[in-house]
Design goal:
Radius of gyration: 36 Å
Distance between the termini: 66 Å
Length: 747
Amino acid sequence: MAQWLQLQKLDSRYLEQVDQLYDDSFPMDIRQYLSRWIESIDWDTVAVQDSLATVRFHNLLVQLDDQHSRFALENNFLLQHNIRKIRRNLQDRFQEDPVHMAMIISRNLKEEKKILEKVKMTEEAQGTVSAMVVEKQKLDNKVKDMKDRAQVADQNIKNLEELQDEYDFKVNTLKSRGNEVNGMTAKELEQEKMTVGRMCLELKAKRQDVVMQLTELLNVAQALLSDLISEELPEWRQRQQIACIGGPPNACVDQLQNWFTSVAESLQQVRQNLKKLQELEQKFTYDSDPIPQKKAYLEARALDLLKNLLSNSLVVERQPCMPTHPQRPLVLKTSVQFTVKLRFLVKMQEFNYQLKVKAMFDKDMTEKKGFRKFNILGTNTKVMNMEESNGSLVAEFRHLQLKEQKVAGNKTNEGPLIVTEELHSLSFESELQLNQSGLNIKLEAISLPVVVISNVCQLPSGWASILWYNMLTTEPKKLKFFLNPPTAKWSQLSEVLSWQFSAVTQRGLNQEQLHMLADKLLGARAHRNPEGEIPWIKFCKQQSANEKAFPFWLWIEGILDLIKRHLLSLWNDGSIMGFLSKEKEKALLSTKCPGTFLLRFSERSREGAITFTWVEHDVHDKPLFHSVEPYTKKDLGAVSLPNIIRTYKVMAAENIPENPLRFLYPDVPKDKAFGKYCPEPSEAPEPMDVENVPDKFSYLKTVLISVSEVHPSKLQDNMMPMSPGGYNTLCQDVSPEEMNAAESADI
């Protein structure tokens, strides 16, 4: 089944995620109309070839023209107008940069596939019906029961009004006819009085029933409100925390909004019904009338419930984030714009344009010596209005910035915490004043704690603080958390580490990779105990005086950046084992045929580096292992890793250089594993000045290759061949005579 058709069959919470992929730069209309054509193209390839991207861009415009023609045949003027507008916008945006369009399509298709894979994994994990789905269904049933009760009560009040009107008519008719000279007989008069009496009894019974129904409806609303405020809202906030640090996406806010809105509508309906009962009471009342006895109590209770609901309805839908770093929310840099989005969960027309929200920074922060203070710049007030797309009541701050306050007489803020451990808060206040409804409610929402940095180099450490905080606590106001940070269990940290990879790639960490990291953090003696505790200082701080030592997290961050920049496809297809101890590496390769190799990340590079190790066998069939000097981002920026592996040579003295790499572990032929990443070189372009070039002129083609030069006697030693960079550095420091002398001495 086509990918787009599969997406359209998903639940609304997943469709929300799809909706977030598309905007004005590449609208969802194109994805809908051209779904088959879009999915038939290899956009990954298009995104790396300028000429092909240009061709596909013009192909897409032709497809849009064809779609416009189909709309013309259908006489659909509106869709013709929309498709022309989309076509013009695409030309304006991507005519000069079609590769950018191809990158957007490629990214969106991958994100769509991720959503489908997550749905599949969720369904497999949950089986037939998960406990969570059952609980949500129960809540849906409670909401439906409340709405049904409200409708029944509303109808019964209408029936009561009709009965009371009829009763009034009967009473007045009886009085007028009783006063007539030639009126009813005594018997008829008695019968009429009995009829009116029965109607009075029925009227009193119905009044009692209606008051009881409204009381029970408020009981149901109160129980439901308790579920929403005490359970569902905190759970949603916790899921949002997890999503912020790379976990499963939190897309249930629409469902939460529907529940909140349903309760608010029912409470408003109760208040309207009570006003109607007051009108009926003014026309007719009696001793022990339940309306005057219960009305004031029910009105106060309905109003209190509504206030409680509304005061908890303002939430931060999208946490503070710099657009330049969308996968690192809650880390803000001074003088750089960030965005944040709020939603009011009660979606009612009467609240549209009634809420003016003000953003404040560190509002509740108590005076603490050494902690930095900031001013919030930009438009810090917004009026909440309903979005055109879904009618949600939102306010989005898009142009906020932070500026540090200068401390008079003190150039630096020397506090108890370093910059990346200081936690700050962004709070939002509003007031709902609807005098006609008797409402005057103060609203407040607060973001998750943020870290404020002044230099982008502080971003990795700031993100580490965000990970640690949101992994270990759900309290949004615990800003002194890092004065005494708690330890993390390996079961918690391992999941978060895996999320860091799955959030930016299509592949998290498997158990073997996590085992290596567990041994690195806990030590081999801990036996990867899930309950093993890791202190904050071990995760993110340098514990050794050795200048070459670096924190665990900065090592992970360097590898993540290396993958994103140079190894994304290889990581996604599983070619890179990545995290592997040298002992495990030898155990895996020792039983394999000569030339089998695997890829792992260097443990000695802070900036992130990758190496490969292959196995050979000596004359006694003993396995020997060779590892090349790790390749850094600089190396891979010059030559891609697949090309390095394809052209790698080991050269010894007068021997012919050979490529020792034959099979990617466990037994995948090298060309099969990496051939798709090594396109055949294109023909050299013709010289521009053809008139002054000899007829037989042609350039000699060159190829960049990686060579490790070793002495022949070392080929079967357990040694580390050098990369070209390392060999060149050695040649600069050591003369050929000294190298020959050293080799002779070794012999």
